[in-house]
Structure formats: C-alpha cells, structure tokens
Amino acid sequence: MKDSRRGLIVGFAGFFVVTALLVCASEGLNSEGLYLLEFKKGVYDGLNFLGNWNSSDQTPCGWKGVNCSLDPKNPVVVSISLSSLNLSGTLSPSICNLVNLAELDVSNNGFTGNIPKEIGNCLRLEILYLNNDLFDGQIPSELGNLASLTSLNLCTNEISGPIPEEVGKLSSLVLFLAYSNYISGPLPVSLWNLKNMTTFRAGQNVISGSIPSTIGGCENLVYLGLAQNNLGGNIPKEIGMLKSLTDLLLWDNELMGFIPKEIGNCTNLQTLDLYDNHLVGEIPGEIGNIKSLIILYLYGNGLNGIIPKQIGNLSLATDIDFSENYLSGMIPSELGKIQGLRLFQLFENQLTGIIPDELGTLSQLKLLILSENKLSGNIPAALGNLSHLTNLQLGCNLLSGGIPAELGALTGLQMLNLSHNVFSGRIPPQLGNLIMLEHLVLNNNDLSGEIP
Fold it and tell me: How far apart are CA 452 and CA 441, in angstroms?
C-alpha cells in the first residue's frame, strides 16, 4: 500500500516537473522571437545561415542578422539585416508585428511573391531594402503609412503595376529606387511633394504618361533617373527649379518637344542624358551655363539648328555626343576650350564648313567622329597633336586636299576612316607608323600613286 502511494506521489511529482518545464519552455522565447520564427517558416535557408535562430533562447537578440536596442532590461528588435544569405521563400506578414523595427533588409536573395500589404504596419520603419530578389505583384499602397521611411529600395525584381499615389505621403523619404522592374502606368503627381527626396530612380520599367510639372517641388532632388521607359510629352520647364540636380537621365523614352532653356538653371548638373527620344528644335545656348557638366548626350533625336557657341563654356566636359540629329551650320571653334574632352561625336547631321583647327588642342581626345555630314576643306594638320586618339572617323563628307602626314603621329590610332570624300594625292607613308591600327578605310576618294 505504501509502495503504491509512493509511486502515485512520484508520478504526480514527475507530471508537475514536466508541466513546469513545458511552461518555462513556452515562456523562454519572447514574443518577438516567436514572430521571427514565424517569418522563418516561410524561408528556405539552404546554407543554414539562420541555424542559430533557436527557440530555446530568451530573446532573438543574438541571432544572425537580428539587432536589438541597447536597453538591457527590455531589448527590442530594431533591425533585421539578411542581405546576401542565399535565402528564398516569401516575406511573412508576421515581420511587422515587430513594432519597433526600424530597418528591414532582405536584399540580394531569392525571395518571391508579393510584398505583403502588412508592411504598412511597420510604422517605425526607416529603411526597407527588398532589392535584387524576385518579388512580384504591385507595390502595396499601404507603404504610404510609413511616415518615418527614409530609404526604399525595390530595384531589380519583377514588380508590376503602377507606383501608388500613396507613396507621395512618405514625407521623410530621401531615397526611392525601383529600377529594373515591370512598373507601368503614369508617375503619381503626389510623388513630387516629397521635399526631402534626393534620389529617384525608376529606369528600365514601362512607365508611361508624362513627367508632371509638379516635379519642381522636389527641391532637394540630386539624381533623377527615368531612362528606358515609355514616357512621352515634353520635358517640363519646371525641371529648371531643381537647383541641386547632378544627374538627369531620361534617355530611351518617347519624349517630344524642345529641350527647355530653363535646364540651364540646373547649374550643379554633371550628367545630362536625353538621347534616343523624339526631341526637336535647337540645342539651347543656356546649357553653356552648366559649368559643372561632364557628360552631355543628346544624340538620336530630331534636333536642328546650329551648335551654340556657349557649349565651349563646358570646361569640365569629357563626353559630348550630338550625333544622329539634323544639326546644321559650322562646328564652333569654341569647342577647343574644353581641354578635358575625351569623346566628341557629331556623325549623321547636316553640318557644313571646315573642321576647326582648335580641335587639335584637345589633347585628351580619344574619339573624334564627324562622319556623314557636309564638312568641307582640309583635315587640319593640328589633329596630329591628339596623341590619345584611338578612333578618327571623317568619312562621308566633302573634305578635300591631301591626307596630312601629321596623322602618322597618332600612334595609338585603331580606326581611321576617311572614305567617301574627295581627298587627292598620295597616301602618306607616315601612316605606316600607326602600329595599333586595325581599320584603315580610304575608299571612294581621288587618291593616286602606289600604296606605300
């Protein structure tokens, strides 16, 4: 009898011990850890980077990629950084039960599916990096709830649909990156209310409509990238209100109309890429006011009129390309003042007159392509001073006289095309000094004598 009672007591004691252990185990990991384990259920971790996400811990503060506040009494998760861990799966809505989360970075992985609309519950979120994954679906309008968000990176995914109008409510936003997706529809007018935004990049999408005139409201914008879309209409003159702008990339769109002269007010601009559009009219002389300009690409449009002399004021420019337009008149000699110029292309225009001697002072020039114009006169002997030149193409013009022997000093030249002109006389033997030459094109001229 005593033995049976003793066994019963021991049995009850064991039951209470096990129950107590179960209670302790369930109370061991705090709620934030449980939310993260819920998130992990939707993640495939092939390389076991999240192997130390252990349910037996009291908090998740020591887990891979999890950072907590410094409060020793009540540490809370403030940052999740899981970039480049070869993770895949979906982004669980449970992630935004972490009410103190300020940074979420799951970039450079293989996450798929929609961006959950519950992301709008992460009200303290400041940084959201979902770039270089495989997210699809639309940008959730609930993102507009994130009043503290400063950086949003969605680039290089498979996101489609429009940019929601609610994005214009992100008053703290500084950085918006959404290039290389399938985003469509017009740009939301509200976007340009974002006074703090410095970078907006949404190139390589299928965005349509026009650039709204309200863009002038983004007074702190530094980088505006909308290349490779389906944007039409005019470039608004309000672009000139963006005094901090350093990069304006609008190439490969369907833009029409004139280049607004107000663009000359963007005096901090370093890159101006407007090529491969349907722009017409003259190149505004006001571009010469942009003394900081380095890259000026206007090729592949329908521009006409003369090249303004003010272009010679761009003393810091390295690349100027006005090719494939309908420009007329002469090449301004003022271009000789741009001493750092490395690339100068004017091919496929209707330019007349001579090649100015001043181009021979551009000692850094590597590419000089003036083909398919109506240029006349001689090749300036001064071009022989361009010791860095690798590509000289003057074909399909009305150039005459002899081929100057000075071209034999261009020992780095790889391409020399003088075809389809009216050059006469002999081929100078000095061209034999061009030991790097790969292409020599002299056909359709009036040359005579033997090949040296």
Answer: 15
List, as one string, the DSSP characters of 113-129. Answer: EEPPGGGGG-TT--EEE
> Phi/psi of residue 217, each to 5°?
-75, -20
Q: What is the pTM of this model?
A: 0.90
Residue 343, SS3? strand
For 435: left if phi > 0, alpha if psi spans -120 to 50, otherwise beta; the answer is alpha
State the DSSP H helix or E strand holding residue 31, giving kind and residue range, or none if neither. helix 31-41
Phi, psi of 116, rounded to the nearest 5 degrees: -65, 140
127 vs 156: CA distance, rounded Å: 17
Which pLDDT tens digit goes with each residue over 202-250? 999 999 999 999 999 999 999 999 999 999 999 999 999 999 999 999 9
CA distance 202 to 194: 16
- Count other Cβ atoms within 10 Å, centred on residue 98: 25
**Cα–Cα distance list, 39 to 43, 53, 95, 124 (Å):** 7, 11, 6, 19
- Please give the angle made by the CA atoms of 354, 360 and 364, to the nearest 5 degrees: 135
Mean pLDDT for the chain? 93
